[in-house]
Amino acid sequence: MTERIFNFSAGPAVLPVPVLEEAQRDLLSLPGVGMSVMEISHRSKTFDEIIGNAEAGLRELLGIPANYHVLFLQGGASLQFSMVPMNLLPPDGSADYILTGSWGKKALKEAKRVGAANIAATMADGGFTRIPGQDELQLNPKAAYVHITSNETIEGVEWKTEPGVGDVPLINDASSDILSHKIPVEKYGLIYAGAQKNMGPSGVTVVIIRDDLLQRIPDGLHTMLDYRTHTENKSLYNTPNTWGIYILALVCKWLKEKGGLAAMERENIEKANLIYDAIDATSFYRGHADPDCRSIMNVTFRLPSEELEKRFATQATAQGLDGLKGHRSVGGIRASIYNAFPREGCQALVSFMRDFERKNG
Ligand SMILES: Cc1ncc(COP(=O)(O)O)c(C=O)c1O
Questions:
Q1: Residue 202 Cα: closest atom of ligand 1
Q2: Which residue's C-alpha comes closest to atom 15 of ligand 1?
Q3: Tens digit of pLDDT for each residue in 115-158?
Q4: Active-site residues: which are they?
Q5: Please, are residues 337 and 328 in contact by the beta-carbon 8 Å criterion?
Q6: Ligand 1 centroid vs 25 CA: distance in angstroms?
Q7: Mean pLDDT of 49-56
Q8: Mutate to test the pocket of ligand 1, among 176, 177, 329 (most ligand atoms within 8 A of CB)
Q9: Helix 45-62 vs helix 242-257: angle between axes, to the nearest 10 degrees?
Q10: Whole-model pTM?
Q11: Nearest CA-CA partner of 149 in 113, 216, 99, 186
């Protein structure tokens, strides 16, 4: 048996071991099918069942109401930065973007190529360390939609509750916190997320879209970029990422067996608090995000110097704690501790932090 290390990668990220084991067991031949899941038609009855399980799993875990479609697309969350405005930002309208980190900025950049996109609030000045208060939002009540990023993966800053946006559809890039806790889906017009952090491997993007928004889509979009193509064809207009959808279905099954999102959230908060408590216990480590905006998925912190941060990440890797180097755009240390990341890994990191400070503080 090959030893598994603690994988703190921001994504693609650690997957549940029971999911990997089941996929391994059935890799050559799905029970009763005699072929690998990668070898079967996406139009087969077997795959119908797999994609049905994936959708049912997400619907059950997230409590997705019946008037929402669940799509399995490709192109990553990054393609959604374009598809959202192409489908939902009319030529005579405008959209509001609330910027709490690097990914929101990228989403805004693509929206601006399509039409008028306003910054309703940006936390850039403080280095994206917090979520704006409701009174800081300059929202246009006539906006086509309001876009947020519920968890900014790079900065480690997370919305704890949705902003009030009235009747304007709220759109959320939930790539790095989907399935980490329960969310009131009915408060959103559209939620999108790349699978590769909490749902499965890269190459699948989940889009949850409220049915009435489809009526706003202009005619003339390229077929693959029009949400209606995918709702009408149940994500099977072209060949989807069959393998990715299969793993996503297994991840949903694993989550349900663990007790669903409420149980997962409790575990995630406990895991994150182990590391945040270690950060707060000393002035050697400095958390990036304001305490009430801290992400439970991506814990970001600094050391007294970049040189020490480099040494920290290198020595941690040597001890089987991999992927702790912060994103190249902001530096520092980032511990990504998604659903499948084990509590023992957080404890191991805390021990390593204490030891590192003793030797270098
Ligand atoms: C919050 C967020 N949005 C968007 C992306 C981009 O996702 P993708 O690589 O699937 O396009 C990421 C990737 O890390 C992310 O964390």
A1: 10
A2: 175
A3: 999 999 999 998 999 999 999 999 999 999 999 999 999 999 99
A4: 103, 173, 197
A5: no
A6: 30
A7: 98
A8: 176
A9: 40
A10: 0.98
A11: 99
Task: Please name which of 145, 139, 133, 144 lies closest in space to residue 100, comparing C-alpha atoms.
Answer: 133
User: Is it the case that residue 2 has pLDDT exceeding 90?
Assistant: no
Rg value, the chain, Cα:
21
- pLDDT number for residue 292: 98
Q: How far apart are CA 150 and CA 92, in angstroms?
A: 27
Query: Any residues with Cβ below 6 Å from ligand 1, and which?
Result: 11, 76-78, 103, 149, 153, 173, 175-176, 194
Q: How far is the CA of 350 from the centre of ligand 1 (A)?
A: 27
Q: Copy the structure tokens of residue 354.
A: 């204490």
With the most atoms of ligand 1 within 8 angstroms of its CB, the residue from 78, 98, 128, 199 to mutate is: 78
pLDDT in tens, 296-306: 999 999 999 99
Token reading at 103: 């990914």
Q: List strand residue ranges (DSSP E) for the chain, in order.
A: 6-7, 68-73, 94-99, 116-122, 146-149, 151-152, 157-158, 170-173, 190-194, 205-210, 286-287, 298-302, 321-322, 333-336
How many Å lie between the centroid of ligand 1 and the Cα of residue 311?
27
